[in-house]
From TrEMBL:
Gene3D superfamilies the UniProt entry points to: Metal-dependent hydrolases (3.20.20.140), Urease, subunit C, domain 1 (2.30.40.10)
Keyword Hydrolase: yes
The protein's Enzyme Commission number: 3.5.1.25
Any coiled-coil regions, as ranges: none
Name of the molecule in the record: N-acetylglucosamine-6-phosphate deacetylase
PANTHER family per UniProt: N-ACETYLGLUCOSAMINE-6-PHOSPHATE DEACETYLASE
Family affiliation: Belongs to the metallo-dependent hydrolases superfamily. NagA family.
Matches recorded under InterPro entries: Amidohydro-rel (IPR006680), GlcNAc_6-P_deAcase (IPR003764), Metal-dep_hydrolase_composite (IPR011059), Metal_Hydrolase (IPR032466)
Keywords: Carbohydrate metabolism, Hydrolase, Metal-binding
Organism, scientific name: Streptomyces evansiae
UniProt cross-references to SUPFAM superfamilies, sorted A to Z: Composite domain of metallo-dependent hydrolases, Metallo-dependent hydrolases
Molecular function in Gene Ontology: N-acetylglucosamine-6-phosphate deacetylase activity
Domain Amidohydrolase-related: start-end pairs: 52-377
Length: 390
């Protein structure tokens, strides 16, 4: 006989739903899923004074907790995952950085196993098919043009778990690689690019749908040469990634993106590296050394920004308390929008019956005090602890 489903009712909090905020709301957790109702007498946890929002979905993340997705063993990957889950990211795509093609293919094999087991939501290849003019924290010696045959090699190594590839689409083979990705059901993302406005429009018409960390690692917006930023902002087919850590973007740039894209076409990402949730010090990002000082990661040689130490909860808090963004718009950028990009909207990204019970509990100051992933507490809020003891 199958075990009976365990129910828990979260009560009293302001619940952020796709239809808006519900003060003094109720959310029913039935095993791993959200349910419409609970049986009489189901245990309740009083979360008055808190917010309930969907688990965060991070589509661009290189690691955290002192570990990276791109190197190390399975336990290193799990360390990085645990770090970000504790900050509310219940769905994470593992991003790699530029490396030798054979090494990236081998890494994809390891990461794909964790994706097949449901630990990861897939793999994002950031590099090596990017522009040396806008390489950021990628090794120039390892960069290469986006040859469709080599792109296909990485997709094959990922065994159906590749979710996104970042390309400088103006390079030789770029547009053909975009078309190949679209045919394979993989997101083609424009990033680390030196493209003109016209070249970017071509890539969008070929099927690109994401801008990798908009504004960063691309030419700035100009009034005579608008470059990729204008094309990416004006086209409704594009969802733009934003790294909202206070270092990568000025608040005015964030507001500009939301003004042009609307709340449904922005995805907050961390672009986190090993130091996220771990601390200052010296690290490696691929083959390059990185110094993290006061939470800002920069290449030891040259000083280029090298990813971030951001966690998604900090991106949300900053969006609401510093950037002046509404809670519902910020939550969409953290959850529903990236879930839609991944094709996972039927499972995650919003608090609706039938979906995974991935829930983040925030206090009145928008700090994480509780995290549920598939109905299990990763971070247990004090009211739940008290209810358990009672």
């Amino acid at each position: 006989m199958a075990a009976s489903t365990e129910y828990t009712v979260l009560t009293g909090a302001t619940v952020v739903l796709p239809t808006g905020q519900v003060p003094d709301g109720r959310l029913v957790v039935a095993g791993e899923r959200i349910a419409e109702r609970a049986p009489e007498g189901a245990p309740e946890i009083d979360l008055r004074g808190h917010w309930l929002v969907p688990g965060f979905v991070d589509i661009h993340n290189h690691g955290g907790g002192g570990a990276a997705f791109g190197v190390g063993d399975v336990e290193d990957v799990r360390t990085a995952l645990r770090t970000h889950r504790a900050h509310g990211s219940t769905t994470v795509v593992a991003s790699t950085v530029t490396g030798e093609l054979d090494g990236l293919a081998e890494r994809a094999g390891l990461l794909s196993e964790l994706a097949e087991d449901g630990e990861l939501a897939g793999i994002h290849f950031e590099g090596p098919f990017i522009s040396p003019c806008r390489k950021g924290a990628h090794s120039e010696a390892l960069l290469r043009d986006p040859d469709p045959a080599e792109v296909a090699k990485l997709l094959a190594a990922a065994r159906g778990q590749a979710r996104m590839v970042t390309l400088a689409t103006e390079l030789p083979g770029g547009l053909d690689s975009v078309r190949l990705l679209v045919e394979q059901g993989v997101i083609a993302a424009i990033g680390h690019t030196d493209a003109t406005y016209e070249q970017t429009v071509e890539a969008i018409d070929a099927g690109a749908t994401v801008a990798t960390h908009l504004f960063n690692a691309m030419p700035p917006l100009g009034h005579r040469e608008p470059g990729p930023v204008a094309a990416l902002l004006e086209d409704e087919r594009i969802t733009v990634e934003l790294i909202n850590d206070g270092t990568h973007l000025h608040p005015a740039a964030l507001r500009l993106a939301f003004h042009h894209k609307g709340a449904d076409r922005v995805a907050f990402v961390t672009d986190a590296m090993d130091a996220a949730g771990f601390g200052d010090g010296r690290y490696r990002l691929g083959p390059l050394e990185v110094d993290v000082v006061d939470g800002v990661a920069r290449l030891t040689e040259g000083g280029s920004i090298a990813g971030s130490t951001l966690t998604m909860d900090r991106a949300l808090k900053r969006a609401v308390t510093v950037d002046g963004l509404g809670v519902e718009a910020a939550v969409r950028a953290l959850s529903a929008n990236p879930a839609r990009l991944l094709g996972l909207s039927d499972r995650v990204g919003s608090l609706e019956p039938g979906k995974d019970a991935d829930v983040v509990v925030l206090d009145a100051g928008f700090d994480v005090v509780g995290v549920l992933r598939k109905g299990r507490w990763i971070v247990t809020p004090e009211p739940a602890v008290a209810a358990t003891r009672g």
